[in-house]
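=== Structure Prediction Worksheet ===
Name of assembly: unnamed complex
Input type: mixed (protein and possibly other molecules)
Chain count: two
Listed entries:
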Amino acid sequence: MNLSFLPLNIRQALSNLNLEDVYEIRLRKGFAIKILYNGNFLYLVNNGVSKLREQAIICDDYAIDEIINIVTEHSLYAFNEQICKGYLRADNGIRIGLGGECVVDNDKIITIKNFSSLNIRIPHQVKGCAKKIINSIIVDNNVLNTLIISPPLFGKTTILKDVACFLNELNIGTIMIIDERGEFESIKGENIDFIRYLDKCKAFNLGIRALAPRVIITDELLGGEDWKCIDSAVNSGVKIIASCHAKNIKELKLKNGFKDKLFDRYVLLRDCNFNNQQIDVYNEDFIKL
Amino acid sequence: MRIFIGILLLLLSIYLGYILSSKYRKRLSFFNSFYEFNNTVSNEVYFSQSTILQMLKNQEKEDDFIQNVKEYLQNKKLKFELKYLSNDDLEFFNNYLKKVGGSDKKTQEKFLENANVQIEKKLNAARDEEKKYRLLYIKLGFLVGLIALIICL
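=== Predicted Assembly ===
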């Protein structure tokens, strides 16, 4: 994992940890650096992690700007599209969420300036983490429209990646991954096509026409437009496997644009422990299977 | 023998005059590179949007200006002192490095446009100074050499 964009003191502290267990690094100007390590938020200290704030490494005034300068190669103008969406992509699918002052013109974000916090998300690939759900979403060699639901940080993207690998190995036809933020960069396969860095709705239109996929995998359905895209894709005979932020089925039903019977399966992740993850699978009528 | 030493002193003092005017040549060369660099960055911002680091990698020349830009972007300090620049020039160069690439496309376009006008002014001034002082120092060198030659004779 290439973390060379981080300041030296942070890299040195991280070198004492197993990076496989690091999921997030959170930097806030003037505050202690926290990391999500093995499912717990801990303070980053010189020799690793600690529960004690006193020993924590403090994010100084320059660390955030330094990271942004290195990731953007001192050229924010070349990354403004990403910045306007609130994140930057670093190597290996690492995503850096940005906090700062938005510059808005006519309700449109022109840029973000004076960055005050960063959320560095380290992508993971946990082989076999989708094993538990694969039999529920593929029935008689047919892929069912599936929505994976959970609050943030429960591993939806990691499961989607593993589902993509399973489908690739099953050789069930072309799989198209809509990868808006470059989070699926580690996934490769002879049956997998990518549409990257494009808005979801445009990617659906482009991909269905150009690549004729049998299954589309996409992450983080948000507003009404996203649900409309799914609806039209399902109606065109393509199977969809997607994910969405929601704590439970009740919250999902309240989402703007959500439509009943859109999906055949709803997979609810109840924790983020991949070793023994609690997963509930519901059918199209929201009956637990 | 005296004539030979006298001529040697004459040539040496002309050469010294030339050396003493090198500060102005270096300054001119610096602002020439600065002007070119600013134009290249402008083009990148307007059109291909490649990063400044990529642009620097593609640069073939490695003069004082480019070396200092590279060093500043990496370590936030200049690689070596630029003695031939005035304090005002250095402040302008430092401010430029702090701001170049550090904002969105629109802001960069305005910044680079504005910088272009100022760099051009400095370049023209450097060109005039170089022309003026190069000749002046060479002439002075010649005069000193001539005096030395006369004394030798």
